[in-house]
Amino acid sequence: MSATLNAQKFSEYFGGCAIFEIPGFTFPVTEYYLEDILEETKFKFASQSSIPYRQSFGWRGREKKLQFEQLILPYVDKLRREKSYSAAVICQLSRPESEELNLDLIQATLEHFVATDTTEGAVLIFVPGWSQISDLVKQFESSGKFPRSQFQVFPLHSLMPTATQKEIFKRPPRGIRKVIVATNIAESSITIDDVVCVIDGGRIKLTNFDIALNLETLDIEWVSLANAQQRRGRAGRVRAGICYHLFSRGRQRLLEDFKKPEILRTKLEESILRIKNLKYGNAAAFFRRFLDPPEEKAVTLALEDKKKKLIKFVKNSQVTPGVIISLLFVQSWATKRQKKFGDQGNYCYRNFLSLSNRSFYCFQLLNRVTNFCQNWKYIDTLGHLESVKTQFAEHLHGVGFLPTTNVKDPSVNRNSGNDALVKAIICAGLYPNIAFFKTRHVKKTGESFAIGRTPEDGHVSLHPKSVNNKGVVFESPFFVYFQKQRSSSIFLHDSTMITPFPLVFFGGVLDYIEDRGYGSLGVDGTTRFRCTADLYKLFEALRQRLDKFLEYKIQNPGPTHWDALEPRLSDEDLLLKMIRDLLTMEYEDMMTEDEELSDDFNSSPYTRLYK
Known about the structure:
23 helices; six-stranded parallel β-sheet; about 600 residues
């Protein structure tokens, strides 16, 4: 049993069942807290007096300031009265900076341990995320105090290649100290058996769900007591160890026992779809049976978000839920699981679909070559995608949409190279997750950058790891995205640029208004395009025909006859060909347009207006 499991809670959930404790063997671990570390290292926090107090704590400044003054300073005053530590330590603990994650303090702690412990053994350092891992590793390298002849420094993150992670488990040569800088993945997911020292940064990065905003957030928080205990245990595997907690005992008393379970910290859409797929009945009733049931409002929000797009199609449909759900994730792997294209980076963000297709083809040709696996960061993901694609084909063939299960058959790949159609399908799956980006130019510096907005959130940004983040000027201002998450800003993950026609054909309700002699076509009231009355009537007629056709097709699955000649084309086939050709022509026209979009998109025939 895990040392950090809330066994009593599980026992109560299962009707008061008995609890048997079988302690495992671990060596003793000596724990030091911030006050002890400051006493030993004589470390002093850099002054931030030039920064207003509230700004130094960010957007939660007032809350942090109040907590520091009311809860931490009384503990410091207690230490002052007891004279347990030197005046220099009391002075440092009285500063707000002592509550912040400090990479210099981590380095000073590591230097102190290395200087006082001459035995062999690895050091494991816990920080919240990849940004801190990267910064700390660079700091170690640039300091000159950790030469490669004496130290091996490894970053450890869940997104790192498997081959790199394997190096972390190897024992270093005699006389060389191994240092691992990791996230909470090293708490319990993996065990490095030669660790003798842990430096606990005291922070953890967790996904949370803001019910009021209906938005996922990614926050850096204090660890729980269970996290701290788990990290401490990493140091006592092979011999007596040491754990340095970079927070005071006063802060430790404020830590919660356990972090909220994941079901209370995430959006529930995927869980609801899984419940439906497994035929567990009413989702809200099923959630109430959980050990930690989510709030009713969170369940209601998730049901409302999915009802319009999925539930009405799943209900009374011959199409299995797995087939429909899969359409929502057609692009979810693209921006996260990418190869670094080197000098082709500027080309990559505009043409990632075609580059991905070529890369997938290369994988199929070289999947038995070991060296290829070392050059590709996500080889396992590509193998999984190949398997999933085959499963999807079997599902679609089983309900009648495909004439064969062979994913390489030319008859089922007629439009596989049509980027316009692929992006339109992505739009259909991800709508209403839509954002608008425009380019701003700074005349003084000559720099340009993209500014994004969503109808419900206002300002947003493309995630720094997204290939689209490399772009400054886009052929179209419209993007759909798979996920948005708030951390330092609201970031969009897994985004795809789309053109206006997919929004018209696969978006929300259409409307038409005239103002000051100009007509405009609207999609759900949040996106408008300049449009004549006659053109609107054409779009509306096509959209109505398409909606009726989709409803019919779900109840009566069958393949489309793309090769049929004009006299033999059915009305359905003619409609699909017409929409495909319109999407393709518009996309090609916009992608070959030489003129850059201006700040208000007036250079484009499609103008987006905000209400």
